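To the wet lab folks,

You asked to see what we're planning to order before we commit. Fair enough. Below is the target structure as tokens, and below that is the sequence we designed to fit it. If anything looks off to you, flag it before the synthesis order goes out.
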């Protein structure tokens, strides 16, 4: 039996108090995600249940029970408190998918500090803008990533501590560095958890927007109410499940469902900290007997590309439920998964700002391959006209996705950027910045984003951030960044570049510029293609017409070019 039982029944008279009651939370009481994800599960009698089974790139394994999670995160909290970290200080987690990332997350929350997860492949430029905006007090990292932090230390007077979880015993620690071996540190049995309340800040995730400046999305401890119930009803997490969320906790799926949703539901989850290959993934599912698998369209398309033969080598009969998020899940991928795994991936739609699943397919509900499904119970979502901001009520008509504010895991603001936050609301609706239509049966069909942000392999990249990085290269005079179609990643970053006098296009320069962006920003933001051109299309007032370059890449009509400079 599935947790949701019946979608149609659940949407009737839905109230978030259903989740509050299940979590024994009374409005006004303390609510701490760290406690709910470890101590509470132990109190429910599951102290010895495996919580986290971790596998590294060479197949090494580490296991933690819920009691281990509780005690080790207490140890993290104690260590941070002793260092002088205070409630609401920002503590950045800058690590690969190692156990310290998952346990550190809970430990930071237990002392009322704010977790700032950052993707470990970020380069120094990506790192500094995010640490500067958050005025981060401490970074918890691995020795392999510490050099990137050291490089920018001079520019960050507010950063007091660099905590290294695996220091090299043969080398002395650097300036502001301190060693912390989480597994072997003292683990206080009776740790006093900071009494956070519903509106106490919890997580600060950075997301790319339409400007070069990433936005810090501020969440609060009350987000648990949404994350717990959506994980239970959509991901259908049950006591006997072995769950695998393939997302990295540097991004929101990896925290909302790779940590909070999973542990607050008391399931056993497996984490694989290794590169992607179809064999590796299937082997992992078979070995750990994964029952619930939450992944992303790019990964699913990569598996499709690897073919059906490889699947036959493994016994994947353990899988009982699959879901996907992050980018459009094409109908071919849904149909393929049903054919090869005997189960369709259920598409789920949401974003960093919403904190939890907004529109989704549900166990037991009819699936229409290619559709994102219907709003989660308690979520009022529709599509509205882009000019009047009024709902259409006309099936099939494309408009902006609009959601009535007020669900528990809604972001509370953009960090030090209230102005941009306010712009996300129109006529009483929250606008995620996506376009969709709704069919007569109420299913949402994703059309595309309503801005220039590129979604490559489920990761948002700001074209402006890439353009700024390109301009720092000595050979680049001007640049324009757009997306181009790609079978696996759906879209990838493409840069058009004009060169400064004295520089000639060449394969070497091409690679050098790509590498320059990769190191500064991240492998995700690195252009997959650079086209050197003489001039960029511009309006008469000198603005680059990215729209023309975009249309060319996607084989679309170019549209009105009356303002083009050299027309
Ligand atoms: O454009 C939508 C797309 O990803 C954006 C959110 O990205 P991010 O904040 O990084 O969070 C990703 C994981 C929750 C959305 O505004 N997106 C997300 N899910 C889907 C999607 N596009 C189409 N279909 C989806 N299921």
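Sequence we intend to order:
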């Amino acid at each position: 039996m599935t947790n949701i039982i019946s979608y149609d029944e659940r949407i009737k008279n839905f109230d978030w108090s259903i989740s509050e009651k299940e979590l024994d939370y009374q409005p006004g009481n303390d609510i701490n995600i760290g406690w709910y994800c470890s101590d509470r599960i132990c109190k429910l009698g599951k102290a010895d249940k495996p919580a986290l089974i971790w596998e590294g790139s060479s197949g090494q394994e580490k296991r933690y029970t819920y009691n281990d999670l509780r005690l080790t995160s207490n140890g993290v909290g104690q260590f941070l408190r002793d260092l002088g970290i205070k409630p609401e200080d920002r503590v950045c987690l800058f690590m690969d998918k190692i156990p310290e990332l998952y346990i550190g997350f809970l430990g930071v929350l237990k002392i009322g500090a704010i977790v700032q997860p950052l993707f470990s492949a970020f380069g120094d430029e990506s790192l500094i803008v995010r640490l500067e905006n958050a005025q981060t007090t401490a970074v918890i990292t691995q020795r392999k990533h510490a050099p990137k932090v050291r490089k920018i230390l001079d520019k960050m007077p507010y950063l007091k501590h660099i905590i290294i979880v695996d220091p090299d015993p043969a080398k002395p620690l650097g300036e502001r560095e301190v060693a912390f071996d989480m597994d072997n540190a003292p683990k206080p049995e009776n740790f006093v958890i900071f009494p956070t309340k519903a509106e106490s800040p919890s997580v600060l995730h950075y997301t790319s927007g339409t400007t070069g400046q990433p936005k810090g999305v501020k969440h609060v401890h009350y987000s648990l109410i949404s994350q717990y119930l959506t994980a239970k009803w959509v991901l259908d997490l049950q006591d006997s499940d072995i769950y695998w969320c393939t997302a990295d906790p540097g991004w929101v799926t990896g925290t909302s469902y790779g940590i909070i949703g999973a542990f607050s539901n008391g399931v056993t989850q497996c984490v694989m900290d290794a590169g992607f290959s179809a064999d590796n993934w299937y082997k992992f599912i078979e070995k750990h007997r994964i029952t619930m698998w939450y992944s992303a369209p790019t990964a699913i398309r990569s598996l499709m590309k690897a073919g059906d033969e490889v699947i036959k080598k493994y016994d994947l009969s353990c899988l009982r439920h699959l879901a996907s998020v992050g980018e459009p899940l094409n109908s071919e991928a849904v149909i393929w998964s049903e054919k090869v795994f005997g189960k369709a991936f259920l598409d789920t739609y949401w974003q960093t700002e919403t904190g939890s699943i907004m529109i989704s397919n549900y166990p037991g509900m009819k699936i229409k391959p290619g559709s994102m499904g219907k709003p989660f119970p308690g979520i009022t979502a529709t599509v509205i006209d882009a000019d009047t901001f009024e709902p259409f009520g006309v099936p099939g008509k494309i408009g902006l996705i609009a959601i009535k504010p007020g669900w528990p895991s809604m972001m509370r603001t953009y960090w030090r950027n209230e102005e941009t936050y306010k712009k996300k609301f129109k006529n009483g609706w929250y606008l995620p910045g996506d376009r969709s239509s709704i069919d007569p049966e109420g299913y949402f069909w994703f059309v595309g984003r309503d801005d220039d942000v590129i979604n490559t392999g489920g990761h948002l990249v700001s074209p402006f951030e890439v353009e700024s990085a390109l301009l720092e290269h000595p050979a680049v005079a001007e640049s324009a960044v757009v997306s181009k179609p790609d079978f696996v990643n759906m879209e990838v970053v493409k840069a058009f570049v004009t060169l400064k006098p004295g520089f000639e296009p060449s394969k070497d320069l091409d690679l050098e510029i790509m590498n320059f962006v990769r190191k500064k920003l991240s492998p995700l933001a690195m252009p997959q293609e650079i086209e050197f051109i003489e001039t960029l299309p511009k309006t008469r007032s000198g603005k680059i017409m990215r729209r023309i370059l975009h249309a060319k890449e996607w084989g679309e009509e170019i549209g009105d070019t009356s303002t083009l400079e050299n027309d």
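Structural context that might help your review: The radius of gyration is 24 Å. The CA atoms of residues 163 and 178 lie 5 Å apart.

Thanks,
Computational group
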